[in-house]
Amino acid sequence: MYDALDFNKNVHKIYEMSPSNKKHTCHALIVHCIDFRFQGAIRKLFNSLGLEHGHFDRLSVAGGAGNFKILEEHAPLSKKLHKPKLAILTIHEDCGAGAKKEDLREARQITKKSIPDTRCFYLKLNGHCEEVF
């Protein structure tokens, strides 16, 4: 366990800004669930889509893209602040927050109001990822 005072004394630089991410725009907005079981699958999805760390806004929220209230607030904000050209929305199997594959349709409609180029993916427990059109 860390003592709060000791922790504050040990400040470390952990991130170096690169010239490419000093500009205030990004390539994509990515929305996914907080569920730890899917972190590897989400990282592989980012890589397969050619999305590099530091070039996208990441919204990690219970229910992922099925959390419509958060999506309605943050998709327009991401567009306003960072001008992403693409949105990647995900929902996963066995979601404890109640998101279902069918929710991707509504999530797409919400997001397309701000970011017309929107892609939706359903992540499965077996590691497979299905693009939903």
Order of SSEs, N→C? HEHEHEHEE
The separation of the N and C termini measures 47 Å
Number of helices: 4
Structural class: alpha/beta
Indicate the proportion of strand residues. 15-25%
- Main sheet, how many strands, which sense, barrel? 5 strands, mixed
CATH superfamily: Carbonic anhydrase
**What is the third-level CATH name, the topology?**
Beta-carbonic Anhydrase, Chain A
Low-confidence stretches: none
According to CATH, what is the class?
Answer: Alpha Beta
| Average pLDDT, all residues | 89
Q: Could you describe the 3D structure shown?
A:
This protein has one domain: Beta-carbonic Anhydrase, Chain A. Helix content is 31%, strand content 20%. The chain has four helices and five strands. The protein has a five-stranded mixed beta sheet with strand order 2-1-3-4-5. Helix 3 packs parallel to helix 4 (103-112).
Structural topology:
Blueprint: H1 4-9, E1 28-32, H2 39-48, E2 56-60, H3 68-82, E3 86-92, H4 103-112, E4 118-123, E5 129-132
Parallel strand pairs: 1-2, 1-3, 3-4
Antiparallel strand pairs: 4-5
Protein name: Carbonic anhydrase
Summarize this entry quickly.
The protein is of the alpha/beta class and about 130 residues long. It has four helices and five strands. It comes from Candidatus Yanofskybacteria bacterium GW2011_GWC2_41_9.
